[in-house]
Design a protein that fits this description.
Layout (H helix, E strand, L loop, with lengths): L5 E4 L8 H13 L4 E8 H7 L3 H15 L6 E7 L13 E5 L10 H10 L5 E3 L8 E3 L1 H29 L5 E5 L9 H13 L6 E3 L16 H22 L6 E4 L6 H14 L3 E4 L4 H12 L3 H14 L1 H5 L16 H4 L4 H8 L10 H8 L2 H7 L1 H9 L1 H22 L1
Bound molecules: zinc ion.
The site of zinc ion has 5 residues, from loops.
């Protein structure tokens, strides 16, 4: 199964925007760039909203049929582990093996020793095409990295073989993800992780390391742009080397999680991809749901009233809603608008405060982040919210398509 050079993860919390999302990928195709859609949803999202993996499969198949999409597309079991993967086996053909919790767990000494002797040739000075300078890898450093990551990669191997035994070899795409952890992985660590991934026999097609800087949900990148760019380019070089050296799948590529809205790094990313002729998977953060809120606000009452109610309740239940996302959001309570002020906003003002347009004076990224994690409120509204989505489908679809195409696909892959 081939994922394609460029692929884009489209989370859709309420499962109503599949066609509008796909329309953005169709526009990219018309502009001459193939980007494979991947509908992703994690166990956490399913449990908060009350959906099943089969719902995502149904949505993806329906959108593809309705739009006459002839290219590949996938349904991603996002951030799964052995404890919950079984639920996703049937509906999914893309599996994001999340082993971040296993980083730093002790590995058996015999396994560490075997890894070190198998990869002893990496010790010393290692020249890799595309790296500004040769890597210096000491025996002690190699051992420290092996001790830190082997247990995680071994766990990825167990999940991979479990999926393979259920679905059959070559019948799914595999991503190995280590992004939900505190410390970023260096290019040398990535190289060792990929060596271990190859040793485990995992046919990984994407790998999601944790990059330097902050990738908060739904807002721009925060960090040192030059450092990120250098790290990204080094990771591309390391992956190309690992593919040749360790026999990993030729289409193995990087995956960026919470990659939506990271506008300030899109240009360096696109430049690096073109220079290295490399592919990329970008997973987005379920921000399509914010376009639904924008569309509802623009549609006027009762849509606008629903959007305001979601905000009021999200503010009242802020701690509860932010809890599961504490490490990936940064909201300053004092910057959140007073509900009495919001009550007087018209739809356009609500939309401008929420829409991620850094040049708009009304854009408020604290407001945006709170609403981003507030989808539980909309889920609790049930049919009232879903009916409004259907009633205002046209207005919402326009927001969804424009957001993905103009603000994401174009700066990442096209312009
Ligand atoms: Zn992730």
């Amino acid at each position: 199964m081939m994922l394609g050079k460029y692929s884009f993860g489209i989370g859709d919390r309420f499962g109503h925007q599949g066609r509008a999302q796909l329309a953005a990928l169709q526009k990219a195709k018309e502009a001459g760039v193939d980007v494979t859609p991947v509908w992703n949803k994690s166990h956490r999202e399913h449990s908060i909203i009350g959906t099943e993996p089969a719902d995502v499969r149904r949505e993806a198949d329906a959108a593809v049929a309705a739009c006459g999409w002839a290219g590949p597309y996938f349904v991603d079991a996002d951030h799964i582990g052995l404890r919950n993967v079984d639920h996703f086996i049937e509906a999914s053909d893309f599996f994001t093996l999340d082993v971040a919790d296993w980083i730093g767990q002790p590995a058996a000494q015999a396994e560490v020793d075997a890894f070190l002797s198998r990869h002893a040739s990496l010790i010393g000075t290692l020249e890799i095409d595309g790296l500004p300078k040769a890597l210096r890898i000491e025996a002690a450093g190699l051992k420290a990295i092996a001790s830190k990551y082997l247990a995680a990669v071994r766990e990825a191997g167990r999940i991979y073989r479990h999926i393979q035994s259920r679905k059959g070899a070559g019948r799914f795409i595999t991503e190995v993800s280590m992004d939900e952890t505190d410390a970023p992985q260096t290019p040398v660590e990535l190289l060792m992780i990929l060596a271990a991934v190859a040793d485990e026999g995992i046919a990984a097609q994407t790998v999601a390391p944790k990059f330097s800087g902050r990738f908060n949900k739904g807002v721009d990148y925060m960090g040192d742009l030059a450092a990120f760019t250098a790290e990204f380019e080094q990771d591309l070089a390391v992956i190309a080397y690992a593919v040749r050296q360790f026999g990993l799948p030729a289409d193995l590529k990087l995956s960026i999680h919470s990659g939506s809205d990271k506008f300030s790094i899109y240009e360096p990313i696109q430049n690096a991809l073109k220079r290295c002729d490399a592919g990329l998977h970008v997973k987005t953060a379920g921000t399509t749901w914010l376009e639904e809120l924008i569309g509802l606000a623009l549609a006027g009452d009762p849509g606008l009233a629903i959007a305001k109610e979601v905000y009021n309740q999200a503010l009242a239940r802020m701690d509860e809603l932010c809890g599961p996302y504490a490490t990936v959001i940064a909201i300053d309570r004092s910057r959140l608008p007073d509900p009495r002020v919001v009550a007087n906003w018209d739809g356009s003002l609500f939309a401008q405060a929420l829409r991620h347009d850094p040049f708009c004076a009304y854009y408020n990224h604290h407001f945006r982040q709170l609403l981003h994690v507030g989808y539980k409120i909309a889920a609790e509204m049930g049919p009232r919210f879903l009916d409004a989505l259907e009633r205002h489908e046209r207005t919402i679809a326009e927001q969804v398509t424009t957001n993905i195409y103009d603000r994401h696909l174009r700066p990442l892959f096209i312009d």
